[in-house]
Structures are given as structure tokens and as C-alpha cells.
Design brief:
2 domains, alpha+beta, two-stranded antiparallel sheet, 14% strand, elongated
């Protein structure tokens, strides 16, 4: 499998963090490697396609956690607070307010 860190700095930061944490946590690295090995070369192209990657749940979890910790874009995932408000992390946000999280 080829690895290309991308041209933009923030993509490199996210991918570097992803690999740093996988190497820091060998059990997570092993679990990911097992999932990729189980899928095998017959199910995964080189490079892997988006559709193929979507079918690998642990790979998806690893990618989403890296993006949560080291967001590759400058924009958050925005949502409008529903009727009645919402309690997030111990703070009440009123109806109509816009809240956002890292995607």
C-alpha cells in the first residue's frame, strides 16, 4: 500500500498524528493490521478506494479519531440546537444557537 502524506501542511499533521498514535499504541496498530490483512489483497486495491476503506470499521475508527484530535480542516461540523435546548458537557445551550465540533 502506498502512503502519500499530501501536499498541505494540515493533512500531513493529521496523518503524522495518526501514525504516531498507532505506533505509540501497538495493540491498536496490530488490530488495524489484522483488519487490513483479513481484507486481503483480493478485496483492497493499491491504493485503497474510498468505498473499500468505508467497509473497514476499525480503519474508519482510526481515521475519525485522528481527525477528531487533529482536525485537517479549519471548519467544524455545525449544528443548530433543537427546541428545548441541549446539555453538552454540563452547559445548557438554548434553542436556535449554533454549536460546532471537529468533524
Amino acid at each position: 500500500m502506498h502512503f502519500s502524506p499530501g501536499r498541505q501542511r494540515h493533512h500531513r499533521i493529521t496523518l503524522s498524528a495518526l501514525f504516531y498514535h498507532l505506533l505509540k499504541h501497538p495493540s491498536s496498530y496490530q488490530r488495524l493490521q489484522q483488519e487490513l490483512d483479513a481484507a486481503g489483497a483480493s478485496l483492497i486495491d493499491d491504493p485503497i478506494t474510498f468505498k473499500q476503506a468505508q467497509a473497514l470499521p476499525y480503519l474508519q475508527a482510526v481515521i475519525k479519531e485522528a481527525l477528531r484530535l487533529y482536525l485537517a480542516t479549519g471548519l467544524g461540523l455545525q449544528r443548530s440546537v433543537p427546541l428545548g435546548g441541549v446539555l453538552l458537557c454540563g452547559r445548557l445551550f438554548p434553542h436556535g444557537m449554533t454549536v460546532g465540533i471537529n468533524a
